[in-house]
Design goal:
Double Stranded RNA Binding Domain, alpha/beta, 39% helix
Length: 225
């Protein structure tokens, strides 16, 4: 009898634990900034100080969508002085393009490619590349334009202290992509558009990285509050 009673108690505790966890996951969709009386947040286009010109728009979009998914939090795109808070996003990378975008795998010229390099000696060409950049974000509660400008122009890598800062953090990001390599023996060869194809692949990979950054951003915000 005593054994059955203990079993019943354990069963009730298990049900309580499961329901508590379920409630936590449900609440994670609610506005995490409500404790700071933030119900509206303005998100201007992120500042792009990286060597990748394609980053600002997709990163701003993904972060906006992430914050907009919280119930009870309204996202306003662009500058808005009436918003409860402003999110500043700053994209940064290494100063030189070849340092931020580097070759990680090469292949020696072979058959079809060898025929298209003319009298040049065989060489290794890149088939896979990797890139690195970071997203720094600063959430300010009802800042003035002067305060936004001051914090947005802070030196790279600096940790800012300001009474209106609700949260600030940096997310380091990396991605890889495979390159298209085709011969360029004639004007009609597929290799004539190698650069265009590879640039499109890079842009797509950067956009996918922006999506991953937004998921990390969501967890950072939830863990902060």
């Amino acid at each position: 009898m005593k054994g059955r009673y203990l079993y019943f108690i354990r069963f009730l505790l298990l049900l309580f634990f499961v329901s508590a966890c379920s409630g936590y996951h449900f609440n994670s969709n609610n506005n995490p900034l409500i404790g700071y009386d933030i119900k509206t947040i303005a998100i201007p286009m992120f500042i792009n100080r990286s060597v990748f010109p394609q980053l600002a728009a997709p990163m701003t979009k993904e972060i906006s969508l992430t914050l907009g998914s919280f119930s009870g939090l309204k996202v306003i795109n662009g500058d808005n002085e009436n918003a409860d808070a402003v999110l500043i996003g700053i994209l940064e990378s290494k100063d030189h393009y070849n340092d931020a975008l580097r070759t990680t795998q090469t292949v020696f010229t072979d058959k079809d490619i060898l025929n298209s390099i003319g009298n040049r000696s065989p060489f290794y060409y890149p088939v896979q590349s990797a890139f690195d950049f970071s997203l720094k974000f600063i959430l300010l509660k009802r800042p003035s334009r002067e305060e936004i400008q001051f914090l947005a122009n802070a030196p790279k890598g600096s940790v800012l202290i300001h009474p209106k800062i609700v949260i600030q953090d940096t997310i380091n990001l990396t991605g890889t992509f495979s390159r298209v390599i085709s011969p360029t023996s004639t004007s009609g060869s597929p290799g004539e558009v190698n650069f265009v194809k590879n640039n499109a692949i890079l842009v797509k990979s950067l956009q996918e990285t922006c999506y991953r950054a937004a998921q990390t951003f969501r967890q950072v915000v939830l863990n902060a509050f």
